[in-house]
Amino acid sequence: MGCVGSSLSEGDDSPKKIQKPKPWTHPQPITRAQLNQMREEFWDTAPYYGGRKGKEDSFATKKIWDALKSAAEVELTLAQAIVDSTGVIVSSADLTTCYDERGAKYELPNYVLSEPTNLIQES
What we know:
The chain is 36% helix and 10% strand. The protein is α+β, with helices and mostly antiparallel strands. A hairpin with a 6-residue loop joins strand 2 (89-90) and strand 3 (97-99).
């Protein structure tokens, strides 16, 4: 039983705050166009990488993927509001692993969340 002064302690199911992803390096130097192409390919095929399966769940899964895409493309405060409002459960604070309210898993690669350390200018 809690009281007015109670607070969540370590280990409680409090929502995780989204944090900036750790720096990453692509195996080879990569241009902005190549990075954008990788991101487009991921988002086009994302429903095959997680979420709920079945026709009756396709709308809910698309909603979660759309929310994750939006969250990946904005600053942290707005990303937090997006995941909170859509019921996304953040397992990894950098958004690489999330779940929906029914427990379906959604995994995001680093390249859709942040810039690589070896991004090069196109010549």
